[in-house]
Amino acid sequence: MHSIKNTRLLDVLNNKPVDRTPIWIMRQAGRYLPEYLETRQRAGDFMTLASTPDLACEVTLQPIRRFSLDAAILFSDILTVPDAMGLGLYFAAGEGPRFKNPTRTPEDIKQLATPDPETELRYVMDAVRLIRRELNDSVPLIGFAGSPWTVATYMVEGSGSKEYVHIKKLMYGDENALHLLLSKIASTTIAYLRAQADAGAQTLMVFDTWGGILTPRAYQAFSLHYMQKIVTALRESHASIPITLFTKNGGMWLPDIARTGCNAVGVDWTVDLRDARALTQDRVALQGNLDPGVLYGSRVKIKEEVHRVLESYGAGERHIFNLGHGIHQYIDPDNVEFMIETVHELSPAFHAD
Ligand code: 1CP
């Protein structure tokens, strides 16, 4: 039996009281850290970094060594799943992710492989096992995947996008083909998250970065429906693993997200946590939601905004402090440290003892 030393994150996810608000940071291992840039340079490119367990473990631990965080998050990417489905992921210098073989036509979708994560994504499971060993139960490890909708946008566009021309053509032109694609991604993702849990991930998060580009009706049909499938499937196989869902720009759908049976919902900075809490009725924990841009500000400003976030949630046990989205690469790590210390300093007042 393992017993984690710092249980704050798992306690909040499981609705147990904590002495202060736990904090971790979306993209906490990344380009704002000089030690990350150094390791990435040594690796040569992002995919080598992510697919070499020793290196993935090293960068996962860097923010844990530097800061007093309450969780580690596996260093990987949501796009390793489509890579394993045969799309050929690569990163063009300074241009973000790209696929050699995007999935455009119904024929492409029919031919897509549904890989076995235990073999094709074995490097991720090896990284999870190594990280757990190195963490030595100091803090819990978060495993993750992209939502089927968000992963599909990259697969169909072939890269990041501003206008989503191809996926919207598919959505309004051949809905059945899109559903087949989403079903294939969802079943691969379910197997992938189960494998991460079996390898040692202690909680799981699903990132739906692009759900917010959909109409309310399309969000239900093409994004939430497939996240619901993931939650339901994980509940069948791993009843007690806590699950967090995050739809960026999904503030108006928080009650629907909370009804999936997940333990926590990520909230971006466009919503006041007071409203998010009223909408979800304490049925779930809320994770968020400092604007990462605040970290460009002065210490006085950072402290004021951290307090504002804590106060907007108010007294209660179900808040996980985080940014409203990933940290930017230009942010000064000293400001991150100051933010974390401020959460440690100010948050006990919002807890019972
Ligand atoms: O070093 C580099 O140049 C690569 C930058 C980078 C990093 C640090 C990429 C490429 N991926 C990652 C790691 C990553 N990606 C993590 C690691 C764990 C941590 O948080 O510390 C996670 C959770 C992700 C998830 C991810 N990748 C998402 C969902 C969350 C989010 O931030 O919205 C998305 C949309 C991606 C795609 C992706 N991968 C990388 C980039 C630059 C992008 C975004 C592309 C775009 O803007 O469309």
Descriptive overview:
This protein is α/β, with parallel strands linked by helices and 353 residues long. It has a single domain, classed as TIM Barrel, CATH 3.20.20.210. Helices cover 50% and strands 12% of the residues. The chain has helices spanning 8-13, 34-43, 46-51, 53-66, 80-87, 106-111, 117-120, 122-135, 148-157, 165-173, 175-199, 216-237, 254-258, 273-280, 299-313, 333-346; strands spanning 72-73, 89-92, 96-99, 141-146, 203-208, 243-247, 264-266, 285-290, 319-323. The strands form two sheets. It has a seven-stranded parallel β-sheet with strand order 1-4-5-6-7-8-9. Strands 2-3 form a two-stranded antiparallel sheet. Strand 2 and strand 3 (96-99) form a beta hairpin. Helix 9 packs across helix 11 and helix 15 crosses helix 16. It starts with 7 loop residues before the first helix and ends in a 7-residue tail after the last helix. Coproporphyrinogen I binds at residues 26-31, 40, 46, 73, 75, 77-79, 96-97, 144, 146, 160, 207, 209, 326.
Query: Any idea how many domains?
Result: 1
Lateral strand order in the biggest sheet: 1-4-5-6-7-8-9
Proportion of residues in extended strands: 5-15%
What does the overall shape look like?
Answer: globular
Series of H and E elements: HHHHEHEEHHHEHHHEHEHEHEHEH
* Helix fraction by DSSP (H/I, runs of at least 4): 40-55%
Number of strands: 9
Q: Tell me, what is the CATH class?
A: Alpha Beta
Structural class: alpha/beta
Query: Do you know the CATH topology?
Result: TIM Barrel
Largest sheet: 7 strands, parallel
- Average pLDDT level: 97
**Bound small-molecule species:** coproporphyrinogen I
**Helix count, DSSP H or I runs of 4 or more residues:** 16
Poorly predicted runs: none
Distance between the termini: 29 Å
From the alpha carbons, calculate the radius of gyration and give it in angstroms: 19 Å
